[in-house]
Specification:
Layout (H helix, E strand, L loop, with lengths): L6 H67 L4 H14 L4 H16 L3 H15 L4 H15 L3 H11 L9 H14 L3 H14 L6 H16 L1
Length: 225
């Protein structure tokens, strides 16, 4: 009999050696593997439960917000509406509904003259959902309040940093228009006119273009007169 092993025999020996090693590994670590497997199952079940609970909470929060908005749009007293919105905001903190409740509360506060309160609530929404489509209008609202509170220079600096930044939280025509409005409120008519003209010239398709052109012409006439 030849002492040389065929390729088939070598392959068989490798398989047996591997299988024997695996069996030995199981005998030495079987308990820990079993525990680890159970742990993975527990984690998976826990994750599934967490997802289901989160989804149910989100649904309840949306229903609660819808009820509060219905009261807001109806004839309910402001205090009742505010209480319901506050309940949504606090009870369901961390949900989209809670963030939106803060926006509604900010609108109520602004309407009642509580500008600082409104600003804080709008900023709360921006901190939670700064990339939300609604965030554009909320940011504009917050800037209007800041101007009314005498923080125009801060707003101008913020907007000047945005106008040429492609990743700015405001679209460029909105940032330019808001900069122009802010500069005008600060008495910087020349700079405000230039910003309005940029909106009209560089963003002619924007809904803001016509108003920006009108304001630029008005400021130009005032400056030349």
């Amino acid at each position: 009999m030849s002492s040389r092993l065929t390729r088939k025999e070598i392959k068989r020996d490798e398989v047996l050696e591997t299988l024997g090693g695996f069996v030995g590994f199981l005998s030495r670590h079987g308990r820990s593997l079993l525990i680890g497997g159970v742990a993975l199952v527990v984690v998976a079940i826990g994750a599934l439960i967490w997802i289901q609970v989160r989804a149910a909470r989100a649904e309840r929060s949306s229903e609660a917000l819808a009820e509060a908005v219905e009261l807001l749009e109806g004839s309910a007293e402001a205090g009742v509406v505010r209480a319901r919105l506050e309940e949504v905001r606090k009870r369901y903190a961390g949900t989209d509904a809670a963030d939106l409740a803060a926006v509604y509360l900010a609108d109520l506060a602004a309407g009642e003259g509580d500008l600082e309160g409104a600003r804080a609530l709008w900023q709360e929404f921006l901190d939670a959902q700064g990339d939300n489509l609604l965030a554009v209008q909320v940011r504009v609202n917050r800037m209007a309040v800041d101007r009314a509170l005498g923080r125009g220079e801060e707003v101008a600096a913020e907007l000047e940093a945005m106008v040429d930044d492609e990743e700015a939280p405001l679209p460029q025509p909105v940032a330019l228009y808001q900069l122009a409005v802010t500069l005008e409120s600060l008495g910087r008519a020349d700079a405000a006119r230039d910003a309005y003209e940029r909106v009209a010239d560089e963003h002619a398709a924007s809904p803001l273009a016509a108003e920006a052109e009108r304001r630029a012409e008005r400021l130009g006439a005032a400056l030349s007169g």
